[in-house]
Amino acid sequence: MMRRYLIAVFIPGLALLFTGRLALAHHAEAAEFDFKKPVKITGVLSKVQWMNPHIWFYLDVKDQNGKVTTWGFSGLPPSVLVRKGITKDTLKLGDQLVAEGHQAKDGSTNASAGDVTFPDGRKVLVGGAALFPQ
Q: Which residue segments constitute the domains of the chain, with CATH numbers given?
């Protein structure tokens, strides 16, 4: 009797513990990015962080005076991008890319990535921002 009780309580409790951790590990894009502030940035790829839960890539953007501003874009998880044919080698430092997405709510030069246009003209969804209407 006691053994059944422990199993009945322990297993669901353990399941809640693990699912709770997963829920905290991930966030909603709407919490961090403003879907009323679409951005379209053209710049030179200067850095790629290929890691979970989302990749980050950075574009250096020059203004008319030559001043460089770096924009960071949060993309999809690496495993999802690989299934779409995008690997670490696809994102080549020094390439000029056009990234579309939504700016961070704090007004910084960070954004949620949507579509990225590569130098060869390919347009690929690399983040969840493109799923939201602009």
A: 29-131 (2.40.50.140)
